[in-house]
Amino acid sequence: MNVRFSLAFWLGICVAFVAAPGGLRASWTPEKLYKKVLPSVMTLEVEDQNGERFVGSAVLALADDVALTAWHVVADARSVWAVFADGQRVKVIGYLDHDGPRDAALLKLDQRRPHGRAPLSRDRPSVASQAYVIGAPKGYDFSIGDGLISQIRNVDGFLQYQVSCPISPGNSGSPIFNNRGEVIGIASWTKVDAQNVSFAIPVPEFIRLNASRQPTTWEQLAAGVRQAPPARSSKPQQTTDLQRPGKQGAGDFAAFKRLLDDSLGKSVTVVVQAEGRTNTFSFTVK
Fold it and tell me: Residue 38 has what DSSP assignment?
């Protein structure tokens, strides 16, 4: 009897473990994770209303032709193309829905990509859990980096994931994966005066958007059709968006002016480095 009871007891424990949420979802090695999720990741080739070109990133989710990205990547787009790791280029028709203050957007692709969707995690990750980012830092597309969920913070009035993954311009809109290959967030912004202090918008902010709308095309966006919130979200002081890699000269200054335009009434700090000297200026944008 004691032996039978013991076997039944341990059998019950094993069944309970398997049935528990995540019980069968073992951690993946980085190699397996990259191979499994890569078909869902895309590089966005964006041309803005001024004719400037840059890249961002996005991930296929919710449907075979719906992508998640950061709103600031496409907020002033004139045309957008998605490029996948297998070389396929797909036209992005426009956006289905967006939330400017939360820097979240759903994009509509011109073609479906069957079996290419990444799974989404609705659960909040634990602080110190493993995180992976796949995107196009400085234009080097489909690069993977790893790090941790450094903290979960209330920024701009809603929760955001602080991550230590290496994130650079071109990673805007990149999916952040947990160690089971599920998307937990989308890379949005980073601190300019710190190392590996970046923030991702949690997946629930994207799930609450309306993916069943008719897409607003980039032509309609330029004409102001259904363009409700401001095009760019406000960011905390001394932060920068992660969108235009490799742009220099006039391109960088134009982006700086647009950032100032979005910061009217706010206190900002500008750090100028020239000829080996660093000068810091703090002022209110008027």
Answer: G
Q: What is the pTM of this model?
A: 0.76
Domain boundaries, the chain: 36-116+208-220, 130-207, 248-284
Pick the CATH number of 36-116+208-220 from 2.40.10.10, 1.10.1330.10, 2.30.300.10, 3.50.50.60: 2.40.10.10
Of 132, 125, 172, whose CA–CA distance to 31 is shortest?
Answer: 132
Give the angle 106-226-231 at the CA atoms, nearest 5°: 65
3-state secondary structure string across 39-64: HHEEEEEEEECCCCEEEEEEEEEEEC
CB-based contact 55:170 (threshold 8 Å): yes
Reported as a single tens digit per residue, the pLDDT across 4-50 is 545 444 444 444 434 344 445 689 999 999 999 999 999 999 999 99
DSSP 29: P
